[in-house]
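Q: What structure does this chain adopt?
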Amino acid sequence: MADSQRAVASVSKAVVPAAGLGTRFLPATKATPKEMLPIVDKPAIQYVVEEAVAAGLDDVLMITGRSKRSIEDHFDRAYELEEALRAKSDTQRLHSIRESSELAQVHYVRQGEPRGLGHAVLCASAHVGDEPFAVLLGDDLIGDSDHLLQRMIEVRETYGGSVVALMEVEPEQVSLYGCAAIEATDEDDVVTVTDLVEKPPADQAPSRWAIIGRYICDPAVFDVLRETPPGRGGEIQLTDALRELAHRKPADGGPVHGVLFRGQRYDTGNKVDYLRTVVEFACDRPDLAEEFLPWLRKFVAERGTGTQE
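A:
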């Protein structure tokens, strides 16, 4: 594919890896996918799909595994439930359950064996084909007003190659993420990624700019992933493939740019951050905040906050 074609190819498909075992939330995730855990009254994965759709990506591929059938059911029609709500003239709840089935064209492929994020992305190759595509991880929810994915698509259209979302983290947190070595561009929120390291020790991290769960990938990533050996944790790492593309010229699928994200990110990947997310979303809901916030203030005052934040 010519350089000019690579640079202007539009992004129309989103890939959502959802094959993880969710072990940090056991026993709740023994039979329920972690992606279906509710943020107030909506499963986390629906927020991710809504974000993709808001960015113009209405073709969504879920990478699933065993015990993930409820994800498919959630984005399908529920005729008996719809009829029961219609009989009660409960139009509000009827609309809410139809909303998920009408959001996007949702497709599914099974990963089979959990061999890492890179392998999960590789499972999307037949569906995506030779097109750039977005990858959205379900553990990260992005604030509605931040439009991160739209900005990443714009950067892809300008520079070609792949784009990662980068967020500055505390030094003690860098070992939890893939971290980037970066160089400035003429745009304040855009950098060139010169190197990537998956979960480095704090004293070996190239920067404090960590990859969060949003990517725009050039289709060249598939060929790289096919040749990428298992890395950290014995898994095929998407970070390792992007590191290879960062060193390539546009004709070969490079380069890699980063969007420096300073907006609102909600991490639902562990119990404490998940609970924080639920509370924040509840406080932002007009239908809940009036009753919930006074109770929350009273609860915190009675328990005492101590000196720590």
